[in-house]
């Protein structure tokens, strides 16, 4: 197993925080370039024990060596913490993380859009009301997101998540359900699927460019 080297991340975040252009980076006013403390190995073991699943290696090493949450893509990484003896993620949209659902596989390997299952929208009357109810049930069915660990939000109920169970385990996916665009894997410039490390480092490099580093 290739060891992930995260030793440069905290110094780079600290350097970013001191740049005059740092406040112009999207989402920076939310996370404030702050990285919470990392998890201990005992804390990570307790977290994974409660989830019933081992987290993908890049994210779990980030939790151990860098931070449990804070500065990161969009409005920042949802931090994980212990609340009343139970581990949970917090932040706008973190409530989507159903611990019991994470162990169930995310079955998809290609982009899919639940909105494609909807019949044409009626023009008026009770049929239209029923269609809107069906739309909500179809688009926001929790079954679509089993095995997804939501890590950040981009505003307007748009999210990015890490697949922790299923054939796409370790990949980062976008949940654009709120825009009726469905779910899609995030990609590197060469077309390969983004892992957690790809995703975080891509954001870090873009932030440095945007801030004038």
Automatic annotation (TrEMBL):
SUPFAM superfamilies: SMI1/KNR4-like
Species whose genome carries this gene: Actinoplanes cyaneus
Domain Knr4/Smi1-like, residue spans: 38-202
InterPro entries, per the entry: Knr4/Smi1-like_dom, Knr4/Smi1-like_sf
Pfam families assigned to the protein according to its UniProt record, in alphabetical order: SMI1_KNR4
Protein name: Knr4/Smi1-like domain-containing protein
